Amino acid sequence: MNIAANPVVQADETVYLKDYQKPTYLVESVHLDIQVFDDYTIVNSVLHMQRQAEGPLVLLGRELELKCVKINDDVLSEAQYQLDTEQLVILNTPEKLKLETSVHIHPETNTMLEGLYKAGDLFVTQNEPEGFRKITFYPDRPDVLSVFTTRVEADKKYPILLANGNLLEKGEVNATRHYAIWEDPTKKPAYLFACVVGDLAVLKDHYVTSEGRDVALEIYAIEKDIPKCHIAMEALKHSMRWDEEHYGLPYDLDNYMIVAVSQFNMGAMENKGLNIFNTACVLADEEYTTDGAIMRVQSVIAHEYFHNWTGNRITCRDWFQLCLKEGLTVFRDQSFSEDLQSAAVQRIDDVSVLKSHQFPEDAGPLSHPPRPDHFVEINNFYTATVYEKGAEINRMMATLLGKAKYRAGTDEYFRRHDGQAVTVEDWITSLSAGSGVDLSAFLRWYNQPGTPTLHVHADYDATAKTYQLSFKQSLKANAKYPDLKAVPIPVAVALFNPNTGEQYTLHSSDLFENHVQDGMYLFDQDEASIVFTDVAQAPVVSLLRNFSAPVNLVFDYSDDALAFLIQHETNGFNQWQATQTLLERILLNGHAAQSYIDALKHTLPAVVKKDPLLASRLLDVPSENYLASLIDNNYSPEHVKAIRSQLIQTVAEAMGEFWKDTYKSLDPAKQSEFSQAMGERALKNIMLSYMATQKDKEVFDLAFAQFSDSKNITERLGALKVLVWYDAPQATDALATFYTRFKDEPLALDQWFMIQAAHPNLTEAQLKALATHPDYDLGTPNRIRAVIGGLNSRPVNAWSFGVQHAVELAKYLDEKNPIIGSRLLQALSRWYTLAEPKRSEVLQALKDVQPSIRSKNVSETLSSILNA
Ligand code: B3K
Ligand code: ZN
């Protein structure tokens, strides 16, 4: 018997993509009977299986108490199987068989929030990627698809009993217990199995699909949160329509359920027909939820809904292909969100996340290709690279193809692979076949790590009236991936007349065939150049418009050219990008701030009137963390903090009364459109924070009035931040008032923790006070993230006493919740860029914790980080 040859069953070892083997048995049907009791749960399972490849019958199982195993009604003796901590291997099995197992599990003590667990009074599941093996013995891998029938039984104190699919039957077991039987007609991998047991209220609605199917929509939450479910319900219906219109994909079941749970390791989970959501990603109401969080709720609702096709009906062959479903689904939810608000701002926000999280990840010790070729713990690969860079790859292909060809390509993918577990190659092949454009070179993006650098050089020939752009691409050498090749880079280009600010019509034979008017050049070699003809004067060039490719652009812009683009670029994204590039130079290369200030003065007043949300983004100053990601050695958090506050002070003073005048001209309450009101609120808060740099009484009074008078939490929190972070006399009062008002609203209270943890001059004692506050709870990832997120937003604190805090927390979570423990350590991955003595101190702290780490999750992350 050769168990080691099967990559899925090597416990505690590296798994390699190249070792993939088909499962030995298919599962034709699954019948589960889950009986929940207070101190244990019984799971009985009946699997009908059929051999499809040579090898033993391997059932994966972790932390299961095996009570009985039968094959074709015969109870097996211990001699007939091998059982260890990871699997049950049964020898000498027939071609076709009925396998029955009975196990006991303990959701009531499961702190890892994986498998079946108890969150408060609610029993819920989280099975992606490998949680199902903590519920029952099963070939728990995404390429084993089956139809599931689930009987759920519990005490009547839990009136809600849910599982995937349609309700077949429900009834009483006895005076105290009841049951429900659910049948899911669609074949699915076990990671999409879900069940829920608890006492919840429900918001109901319905949606009629383009095929005429009347779908019952239900959002389950605790009673008092039901009024906060309407925004999510509207977003769900909107997503269903959007997917029909943009991808021709209607919903396929008669019901769609969402359950809100407050203890959840990530945002949400796309279980077939029964999504389970972190409350933070489903509850939304302007009184309790910030505008940013409302936008996030809508995008996560869309994301999980879109998975119904990209992920569920067509799933991944193995977990190396994770970015197939995640990258594509993120691209789809980003496109959906671009339709909900200013498309430019959505793009700005998505690229900001990419540049501040994915670029640093890809430049450090945790760098990996969007499709990695090995892993120890797959949970460590739900990363910005898999999600965000994965989305960018799809965006590049969609942009190159244009709407009609992209749609022909996706139609072909759904036609070929519906009901299958597939690979990234299958996706690219379908997209190429359907669109008629060979996209195979894009596979390189999936298989190579690192952010490519795109070097561009420009030459204008005044006599010939030609303008030449020369391109070069390079990738940082990576010992693990020695064979790096040039990738296809779509470069969106515009040329502007330097005197009038108007855009030149482009004449060139080198642009991509479909996009001559849009100025899209497909650069896919190590070096190449293009020539524009009939260019009357040396132009100002705008490159990578809309961030047409996820690369680091190196181009020798003058500060004047950047200031010109801030004023004249019509692509809102590149207008913003020009502000950021100019600010990076001012902050990191010591350039003068004047050209930035002049450009703002010229540009902002009109943008404030036309698109307040975009105006708020044009005032973004790169965060300390983002600036840190551009510094590869001798990084001093104190220095970066100082130059950044100095710049903010200079800009605040130079713009004079602009802040106050603009602040007073805004009245979000008068706006009927959410997006308009959101824009005004964002701008109001930025105006307030610039004014606060003066630290005068009038500004603090304005902030306190905004805090006290507004019913909208975005305004309240904007004001609270100013009061707390600038140590206004009203700060303590305002914090106390907020606490009293929101102490029973966990998501709002998370913000209260976050703001305090993000105080620029937080002390170790204050951090300790937050982490020992009666409302701090190590069993609730949202609360941990609130404090750690606040702390990490201030690198000066994060890299001093924050390190010890993070390391101790990781050590605790290593045992209790290693998924979260591992994430927490990922934030320390750039320790090696620090200036001494910090560098050595952090290294020592990381080394000190290593011997006590037990989980695969934390130890894989720690050893990667230490290998920097
Ligand atoms: N697919 C889930 C993520 C599961 C993460 C497991 N550690 C949510 C999503 O991407 O939609
Ligand atoms: Zn997803």
Give an account of the 3D structure.
Its EC number is 3.4.11.2. This is Aminopeptidase N. Keywords: Aminopeptidase, Hydrolase, Metal-binding, Metalloprotease, Protease, Zinc. It holds the Pfam family Peptidase_M1. By secondary structure, the protein is of the alpha+beta class. It is built from 26 helices and 31 strands. Among the domains are: 1-199, Sandwich (Immunoglobulin-like); 316-447, Neutral Protease Domain 2 (Neutral Protease, domain 2, Orthogonal Bundle); 453-549, Immunoglobulin-like, CATH 2.60.40. An eight-stranded mixed sheet has the order 6-5-9-3-2-12-15-14, with no helix packed on it. The site of (3S)-3,7-diaminoheptanoic acid has 13 residues, from strand 20 and helix 2.
